[in-house]
Design a protein that fits this description.
Length: 291
């Protein structure tokens, strides 16, 4: 396959995935999406499966379930019915059946603490997993209102050590285009501590300062969502990241009186272990909140 053809197909698949994640609380209309993208439904389905290894409908079902499972453990004031509606389900009874088939427990059992063992098993399965000694209890976030942030990106399927190769490609793009003023960011579409790591969508991003002129169309662009976020500043080792995210979602959020939304969390790095030649990172981690 020609390079230009592969880039075009990858962009279409990424646009479809981005649309799904940003419209997960609605009844996603594939017909309307195909018109928006200017691609036939048949072509759209074929490209998506070629790039992501599953069809569009399977992805919608999986993402809805991932979002719902996260809201169930963080949003203690939301009823199961509220969460079902916010994740685009039309029927609570069908959601309960689908949820039990996936997690082996009812949404109520999950919400009451059943998620903890499930989450711990995921962290133990991680390639990054080394017994983290970090304690996060003293971290106090600041509450900030963030504007939408435009970024160039590469999507990485799975949360694994191959992410390093994705960051190396982005670094090559930065150097090739002689970009001086930029920041690195990572978007976490899924909570990687309750989503099987191979199913996670990790987005490695370059945020370029406005005065920079980019003459490359090699990478697609998208906007990180505006909104109100809890901002956590953290330094640590690579193996602290999953335990930290687990602490944010499973301990800090339920105790905080805040609730989260379906917007993805993201990190903006001052130091990135994948690039800077060490196993240390330094970042600000942003979690969408509501009150």
């Amino acid at each position: 396959m020609k390079k230009e053809t592969l880039e075009k197909r990858t962009k279409i698949a990424n646009d479809i995935m981005y649309y799904i994640y940003t419209h997960i609380d609605t009844n996603i209309d594939i017909e309307e999406l195909s018109l928006d993208l200017g691609v036939s439904k048949f072509h759209m389905h074929r490209i998506f499966k070629e790039i992501f290894g599953r069809n569009i409908y399977e992805s919608i079902k999986s993402i809805r379930l991932q979002k719902a499972s996260n809201l169930l453990l963080t949003n203690k004031y939301s009823t199961i019915s509220n969460i079902v509606n916010s994740c685009g389900y039309s029927s609570q009874s069908s959601f309960i059946k689908i949820f039990k088939d996936r997690f082996g427990m009812t949404p109520k059992e999950w919400k009451q603490g059943g998620y903890k063992e499930y989450s711990n098993d995921i962290i133990k399965s991680s390639e990054f997993e080394i017994e983290s000694k970090a304690n996060f209890d003293e971290i106090v976030p600041t509450i900030v209102k963030m504007k939408a942030i435009e970024s160039f990106y590469i999507r990485h399927s799975g949360y694994n050590k191959q992410i390093e190769q994705t960051w190396q490609k982005l670094q090559t793009w930065v150097l090739t285009n002689d970009i001086k003023n930029y920041k690195r960011a990572a978007l976490f579409h899924d909570n990687p501590t309750i989503t099987p790591l191979e199913d996670c969508q990790y987005i490695a991003c370059i945020i370029v300062d406005e005065e920079e002129i980019i003459n490359s169309d090699r990478l697609p662009k998208f906007k990180i969502a505006e909104g109100v976020y809890a901002k956590f500043d953290l330094k640590g080792k690579a193996w602290d990241i999953l335990p930290f995210i687990q602490w944010v979602y499973h301990e800090w959020l339920p105790k905080s009186e805040y609730e989260t939304t379906t917007k993805p969390s993201y990190a903006i790095y001052d130091k990135l272990d994948f690039i800077d030649g060490s196993d240390e990172f330094e970042f600000s981690f942003y979690v969408s909140i509501d009150f």
